[in-house]
Amino acid sequence: MKVLIFKTAQEAVDHSAAAVLEQIRERAETVLGLSTGGTMVPVYEKMRATAAGLSFNKVVTFNLDEYLGLCPGDPGSYHSYMRHHLFDHLDFNPHNLHLPSGTAACATQEAERYEMAIKAAGGLDLAILGLGENGHIGFNEPGVSLGSRTHVQALTDQTRAANARYFGTSEQVPRFAITMGVKTIFDARKLIVLATGAHKAAAVQAMRDGPVRTACPASALQAHSQVTLVLDEAAASLFEARAAYADIQGHKVASGHG
Ligand code: GLP
What we know:
Radius of gyration: 17 Å
Helix content: 25-40%
Strand content: 15-25%
Shape: globular
Oligomer: single chain
Distance between the termini: 6 Å
Bound molecules: 2-amino-2-deoxy-6-O-phosphono-alpha-D-glucopyranose
């Protein structure tokens, strides 16, 4: 796992946005895995601000997750989030943009359909992930199978509390979501995990330094050969190997891939 630690959250964000744009520059038909949450808001803002001259028309996107029970027009849905922060501002082809449906008649079938759609698109070239305070990726909560595919996931009280700011109260946060599984995410050819802020430090430590275990779903990524963990100083504050880093070009690099 490659680890990049930046002084500020903005530098970590800028690096992540540039890496996604670079991927699209290299391959116009890139298949992206996209996340939501507060961490990604400035990433999408930066992508919008620095995308001049780059076409997104052939890019294919699959979001990691969606709340169950929310229609695409619901302001709390990830459909709305993505339109608002990214899709409506660039020349994406709407036919290429995928999120799980939160209102399918059968959520389990919808999860299977979504998994097949990712496969049919040739799999994810690059997925950019946030990190839950409890170590979740997508909505894969502690206890999930590390071999899981896209599935219906019950959300923990901690996750519902963390997302209450988008709904008013924790009680108003949906109880279930459809999420790509840990293995679905793991199958992406490249992964960027972005975590900023001191409230993510414990999850970062568990993900990178802890044992691989279902209690921290993100720890499964330790076995991935092309994952870059992008952090600010605050999120890296509990990271064990931190002191051993060499300073390279303004940011610190822990180790190479592998
Ligand atoms: C959310 C999303 C994830 C996101 C994570 C962190 O609930 N399902 O995709 O990466 O939790 O969210 P935030 O960036 O707001 O801390």
